[in-house]
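User: Modeling request: complex.
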Amino acid sequence: MKITVPILLEKKRNNEKIAMLTAYDYSMSLLLDKNGVDILLVGDSVGPIFSGYENTLPVTVDEILYHTKAVVRARKNALVVSDMPFMSYQISKEEAIKNCGLMLKAGAEAVKLEGGIEIAETVKALCQSGIPVMGHIGLTPQFVNILGGYKVQGKTDDAKKKLIESAKALEKAGVFSIVLECVPEEVSKEITESISVPTIGIGAGRFCDGQVLVINDIIGLFEGHRPKFVKKYLDLGQLIERAVKDYVSDVKSGRFPTENHIYK
Ligand code: KIV
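Assistant: Request completed. Predicted assembly structure:
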């Protein structure tokens, strides 16, 4: 079934969990789409994962646009969400509409923006322009220089109150779902119960309406730091290493190519 924004809202009403993964390229997106992933997020994590950037801040609109187009070509059923890069929606509502509009023109069906109450007006303007918005609060990696690192958020009463206020402000502004990143489980539970749009957790516990993880983390294809909340389903890195070593050894020893691999 083709996943749409109204279907995701219905999933929350029916208590059906939502499965989201990041996706950056065509081949992987084909596999994710055909195996039941509801939402493909063209995350700005593409910066560290695909391009080797230190964090997500250098990622540009053109880069997200390029990866969005690749993912869209593979998409049949999933909803494609483009993650808006740092400084692509903060400067003015006009710039936000222009940059987010480019993603929809490329075939994405929604955009994701990091930030709470402070971006509510921008979210409202985007929704009024026909651009569905996914919010993202808690640990917002684009704020790494303010947060001083990638730390669990919402641990004090005051921080928890601010997160709940932000979730409600984003809902009022028109978001169709909110990513909750690295927040204590009881905080994400309270947010999930107090808003009518689905929450998608990453390091936010069991009570969110859905979950998201970075694809490379779950298949073991990223050598960097793996946070506690990641479940690794496969060690693809190790399998690739073995295959590459075998190939190199076959080439060097003359075992490849064989008769089966040549044209006569
Ligand atoms: O860019 C990203 O991968 C994200 C996540 C929510 C996983 O924003």
